């Protein structure tokens, strides 16, 4: 229905073109009638449709005007088993195509011999080959003045290049191969020009991990060095910047790409290894990243820049599978908030964050709701999703108010998909360019109403696709029927009152896109990782060192670039969670073996280790007795103390215990955050209580007393004996004998010391009453625990 009135509003051509076109038709009519009267022609052509392939590698200018010379070059290849003789390559101008659907039809059958190709241009403009051997390719170049093509009124013409010749099986001149394309013909300025917005996307896959180095610079770690290949001269992203700088386009950028390139340009980045190690990145690649950023900064100066949420989150996956998981939408909000800051910091321009872009522009009510939940009030959709239902005879303008203050900016599907597929071959790229220009010109000719049309190509064009896009845009911007416009202006343009504003239902969402979505388990894992991050962050003195890299990694886990790459996505998420677990485990309790408690009271030390580079705090260590009737800690069933440890240190936290009975008691040590959440794994150990009883103490005391009395008796007896000996020896001899080394009084001195040594060993004055030669517990101490000792690693 939309094609029914495609002729409406077409401007009249000069009279001379009508006459010239009419003459050409009259001249070609007898020839066409003669061809139609050959009964064997159609079957013969059908049988030999694969005999010769024709490739149009270049067509210049893409949209010729009066006075131009059209140059066509390409190759012809004999794919058959027989040689082709008396061959020549010729140009043919077919009929004018009056609808966009006709253009599609010609493109679908561009190399089929059965379809009419129009009359051949004068033989002066052909190239001859005496013989085309099987398997041989021949290059050709043809140039013809445009006024020799006998083009009529303004519009799109089918244009063909054919190879004609003979074979031994078909010894008459006939067409053996053809390649059809399009010739846009608008030599003078159109009365009404279409305002065309072309999005130029700078988006890549995920490259950065959550890992950063321990130093002040927090050296980032990359999955691989693939980003450097894209940035290097000739690479995909290098081509996008080099080509885009001269085009009037709207740059659509994923801030994650800028953050990744900026991290690479800063130097000292590292590459993840297969065995868990990492290696330094190349200094050469660092220079490449710097050069690319400098070129991009110049390219976007004065141009509109649209920033997608950080990581380019998959809005459809989130809408269909993630909203039921608590916290999923908050990640989209965070990704949107950080987007503008990232772009402004790296590119020094203020971007627009008003636009959301679901995958392939496919929308339904849930996608629209999620897309606008983070603050964007304009959603880039595509016309093959939000299809026209009002029966308009032309393509309406892009903006559609869909309610709630939201505008759907509907990109034209035909123009947006024109550069998909493999365009590495010159022939494929040329056909894509000519088809794009033909659709654009035919769209402009539909009505005399000026409209705003948006082109939203694939998210990550290849280098060859980017080159084809740039070729088409250069022709379009230098043409006579279109004028450039940025995306914000297109979104603000006056909507067409007849255009549909009805968002398609969920059931109409393409199944091919549904199969590529992130499943609900992905968002559950993301929520689990976020929960672990929230618990870990509260103990850190510098949260930004962990929260920032992990927050951005979680954004990357939701990236649209994971579509069709499920295994890689699973590996990335697993790596992020595993690294977070490893970091959190750097703050832990040291395992304890069985502890022996001698006496009624003692202290039990529990060691907390911090292998992070930054101090940790806001932790509480709780020690709990499983049998408080036998062993109490701090006078209760459990006791807890605050913990603060410097980076790279350990700390022994001392707990006072009191025993009421002998036996084995299990004790549990557990770290908690200040808000009562368990942190890390508990440490469980046994305490063996060996308390000394009063009866045993009495026996020991009695034995000590007997030893003291016996020693005293021996001492007095020796003293009396010495006195009697002195009396018998007479006066004056006692002192000399006493001073001699062999004085019998010396053994008495040693004996005098023996009771004191025995008294000390008995432990009668020791309140601890040790019963084990090497007790595990220390006497009770009131000294506070320090911030920790350096960890020996």
UniProtKB/TrEMBL annotation:
Lineage top rank: taxon: Bacteria
Low complexity bias spans: 505-514
Sequence segments annotated as region (Disordered): 488-516, 722-793
Bias (Acidic residues): 754-769
Keyword Lipid biosynthesis belongs to the record: no
Parts of the chain that traverse the membrane: 696-715
Keywords from the UniProt entry: Membrane, Signal, Transmembrane, Transmembrane helix
UniProt signal peptide: 1-46
InterPro entries for the chain: DUF6049 (IPR046112), Ig-like_fold (IPR013783), TonB_box_CS (IPR010916)
Gene3D superfamilies: Immunoglobulins (2.60.40.10)
Name the UniProt record assigns to this protein: DUF6049 family protein
